[in-house]
Design brief:
With about 140 residues, the chain is of the alpha+beta class. It has a 4-stranded antiparallel beta sheet with strand order 1-2-3-4. Strands 5, 6, 7 and 8 form a 4-stranded antiparallel beta sheet that branches. Helices cover about 25% and strands about 35% of the residues.
Length: about 140
């Protein structure tokens, strides 16, 4: 994440931090992937409707993730400007575990969830966030 994006994210998080809480890592992530089937369907439909003039391809909404020593914050990122738009969720880190990292050509991902639950949140890291992914993965224990 570049300096401007990081500064704007830290400014948005600052009022939410507890005394002594420190931000350990920030990253640009996706919480939902766009399947190849959906991409192909959108491209084909838009090409047909426009008479071959254009093709529309769906992309996931980028999110900002900030991890502190106590919590994980998720913000919706403005795709045009560098600022965070909306605070979506805050997850306490205590008791969180992660799944194995799934490597793909253009991204990688893992699931985070409470240790006693099967339900979780899939976090998708683009290629540019590999370094941050390693920091986040190292901070969360691997699920059994």
């Amino acid at each position: 994440m570049n300096g401007k994006r990081r500064r704007l994210l830290l400014a948005a998080i600052d009022p939410m931090l507890e005394p002594g809480e420190q931000v350990e890592v920030t990253a640009i992530v996706n919480l939902r992937s766009v399947t190849v089937r959906r991409t192909a369907a959108f491209a084909a439909a838009s090409a047909i409707l426009s008479g071959g003039g254009m093709a529309v391809v769906p992309v996931p909404t980028p999110m900002y993730l900030a991890m502190t020593d106590q919590r994980i914050f998720i913000f919706r990122a403005n795709p045009t400007f560098a600022r965070p738009e909306e605070h979506l969720m805050t997850i306490p880190r205590a008791g969180l575990v992660r799944s194995e990292i799934k490597e793909r050509v253009l991204n990688s991902s893992f699931m985070i969830s409470p240790a006693d639950s099967e339900q979780g949140l899939k976090i998708i890291f683009p290629l540019v966030s590999r370094k941050e992914r390693h920091v986040i993965a190292a901070a969360l224990p691997l699920a059994n």
